[in-house]
Design goal:
- The complex is a heterodimer of chains A (301) and B (336).
- With 301 residues, chain A is an all-alpha fold.
- Chain A has helices at residues 3-28, 30-47, 49-52, 90-126, 128-143, 146-157, 161-187, 191-198, 203-211, 216-239, 251-258, 266-294.
- Chain A starts with a helix and ends in a 7-residue tail after the last helix.
- Chain B has 2 domains: 32-77, no CATH class; 88-335, MetI-like (MetI-like fold).
- In chain B, helix 5 (88-123) runs antiparallel to helix 6, helix 5 runs antiparallel to helix 11 (244-282) and helix 9 (194-229) packs across helix 11.
- The longest helix of chain B has 39 residues, at 244-282.
- The chains are: A mainly alpha (301), B mainly alpha (336).
Chain lengths: 301, 336
């Protein structure tokens, strides 16, 4: 075995060890494991939506308007969770809705994470007036109630799912900036960074390859929290008519469409909200587990 | 203390300028001509259009416009609503008490339940009570409150018919709005049943708005208590033979409350965001509902004014919380 191959194996086994240790702490938290299972199930449902869903999410069955779920009086097995006011199958709409919610979460977290980390690295590493400017702008964003700022941004950009995601990403990224900056400030004068600098590493390499990997733990936890916040905020915008537009089967939009039927047909309101709650809860449970597993202060070794 | 106060106010100035720039830019960032936007669908003649552009100062350099806007703010001029033609600031203060009343009830509810429950959960760590509280808190924290409000309406206003569906008070009562707070005004009116009606209208919205702060406060109290309970001075107090109640309520609680107070202060923003949804669901005539309606009515001067007012009020509340924090914890006051 050549030298490079040997170090490669050694590196890989070290990585496996870290993963094993992580899983050990993560799996100690029963809630986190349950959350992970629910989340994986949701991802599978979202991917397999065309196969799992019994009906098309937009097909209107005109002879089955506001049909109650199968277990209630007048419900049929054709529509397991009943139908909405224009005769669409609620279960199928919920299944397709999972796609939107997870998509929203992924896009928003990716956007706010990349922008937030970059700004945070620059603020923390470069410092000076650039740091002051970035952090004051973040203070201003945080001075507004998040949902209010998102609403106003959507009013500027125009209602719609894409614009809602951009608005939510913007209001969530200050948290990433602050976390990254704080972590960078505490790391940048450590010996290993100085060593890398003396060895000739450029500022970009120092920022992204040397310092950033050592700041990841709080960022991962924050990313999970932001994922669930993004889903909640997007649903709230949809509920206020400023997010995804009908007939998109987005959960918040479904709730908005069904508001006038709450007393006549409670099921059209109950299930979309339940779907939001279960998804957000599963992600938050995972977040708690991640925090316990990644936070060295809480590790009981 | 004065120096601490001044340094905190100094920190607020750049944020306030930023907030005013955001509010100022809002109307100018909207796609299309601001005057045409305000005119709405009725349309305008050419001359009237030019006249209005001049009147609003849109033809002048941008920094001059901003300076005028800033001067206006300090004279209490936030422009006029397009729909009602009334000054935005007057409308804001007419609706503000309703939001304050709801938010106060919600935060009081959250504190009165959240802190004791968090303390008990920490003291009885690992017990059935602890697990139940923490699970419930996580569910509350994950709750889409607009849906939660609808569920409560279905159950308590629809099926059980215990509470009204929406509004602040039953329409059969009519009395002068002395303070703007329905609970106080209905008491002052002396009308039989008015106070009860006001209370019953407040219950569901308060519960909905309190849900997330309650969950956050309970979790924060528990973890702050757990941290403090493992400190040496708590062990010393126990070893001295003090009663468990005294150790918890005097020695541990005081120090555990410091992070909890910060958390409560941070909930102001959460409450305002929550008020947007809660007020919309319960037709509560406050700032949140007003803003949502103004956005959909394209009443942009209202949105602009309210944006500035809400952010400024949150900043001021946070300043007060910072001051309280400095009072409780001297090490912060003398830190710099």
């Amino acid at each position: 075995m050549s030298d490079t191959a040997r170090t490669e194996t050694k590196k890989r086994s070290a990585e496996a060890e870290v993963l094993a240790e992580f899983w050990h702490y993560f799996s100690e938290n029963r809630g986190a494991v349950i959350g992970l299972f629910v989340f994986v199930a949701l991802v599978l449902i979202a991917i397999l939506a065309p196969i799992v869903a019994p009906h098309s999410p937009t097909q209107q069955y005109r002879d089955a308007l506001l049909q109650p779920p199968v277990w209630a009086d007048g419900g049929t097995a054709t529509f397991l969770l009943g139908t909405d006011a224009v005769g669409r199958d609620i279960l199928s709409r919920l299944i397709y809705g999972a796609r939107f919610s997870l998509f929203i979460g992924v896009v928003v977290v990716t956007l706010s994470l990349t922008i937030g980390i970059s700004l945070g690295l620059i603020a923390g590493y470069v410092g000076g007036w650039l740091d002051t400017l970035i952090m004051r702008v973040m203070d201003v964003i945080l001075a507004f109630p998040s949902l209010l700022l998102a609403l106003v941004l959507v009013a500027i950009l125009g209602p719609g799912l894409m614009n809602a995601m951009i608005a939510i990403a913007l209001i969530l990224q200050p948290h990433f900036v602050r976390l990254t900056r704080a972590a960078v400030m505490s790391e940048k004068n450590r010996d290993y960074v100085t060593a890398a600098r003396v060895a000739g590493a450029g500022p970009l390499r120092l920022m992204f390859k040397t310092i950033l990997p050592n700041c990841m733990a709080p960022l991962i936890v924050q990313a999970t929290l932001s994922f669930s916040n993004a889903i909640l905020d997007a649903a709230a915008l949809g509920f206020l008519g400023m997010g995804a537009q009908p007939p998109t089967p987005e959960w918040g939009t479904m709730l908005a469409e069904s508001r006038e039927f709450i007393l006549r047909a409670p099921w059209v309101v109950t299930f979309p909200g339940l779907a939001i709650l279960v998804t957000v809860l599963a992600i938050n449970l995972m977040g708690d587990g991640l925090r316990d597993a990644l936070d060295p202060k809480l590790k009981r070794s | 203390m004065l120096r601490f106060l001044l340094s905190r106010i100094g920190l607020l100035i750049p944020t306030f300028i930023g907030v005013s720039i955001v509010a100022f830019s809002f109307i100018r960032l909207l796609p299309g001509d601001p005057v045409l936007l305000m005119a709405g669908e009725r349309g305008l003649s050419e001359e009237r259009h030019a006249e209005l552009l001049k009147q609003f100062g849109f033809d002048r350099p941008i920094w001059e416009q901003y300076w005028d806007y800033l001067l206006g703010i300090f004279q209490g001029d936030l422009g006029f609503s397009i729909v009602t033609k009334k000054p935005v600031i007057a409308e804001f203060f007419a609706l503000f008490p309703a939001t304050v009343e709801l938010s106060l009830c919600a935060i009081v509810l959250a504190v009165l339940i959240g802190i004791p429950v968090g303390i008990i959960a920490a003291v009885k760590r690992g017990s059935f009570f602890d697990h139940t509280v923490m699970t419930t808190a996580l569910v509350g924290y994950s709750m889409p409150i607009f849906w939660w409000g609808l569920l409560l309406i279905i159950l308590f206003a629809g099926i059980l018919q215990w509470t009204p569906v929406s509004g602040r008070i039953s329409l059969i009562y009519f009395f002068p709005q002395v303070t703007g707070f329905m609970l106080i005004d209905s008491l002052l009116s002396g009308q039989a049943g008015a106070f009860r009606s006001a209370v019953s209208h407040l219950i569901l919205p308060s519960i909905v708005l309190a849900t997330i702060p309650l969950a956050v406060i309970a979790r924060q109290t528990r973890s702050a208590m757990l941290e403090v309970l493992s400190e040496d001075y708590v062990r010393t107090a126990r070893a001295k033979g003090l009663s468990p109640f005294r150790v918890i309520s005097v020695h541990a609680l005081r120090n555990a409350m410091i992070p909890v107070i910060t958390t409560i202060g941070l909930q102001i923003g959460v409450l305002m965001a929550g008020a947007i949804l809660t007020e919309t669901i319960f037709s509560w005539p406050g700032i949140g509902k007003w803003m949502v309606e103004s956005i959909s009515r394209r009443d942009y001067p209202v949105v602009q004014g309210a944006l500035l007012m809400v952010a400024t009020i949150i900043m001021l509340v946070n300043l007060v919380v910072d001051m309280l924090y400095g009072l409780i914890n001297p090490s912060i006051r003398y830190a710099r």
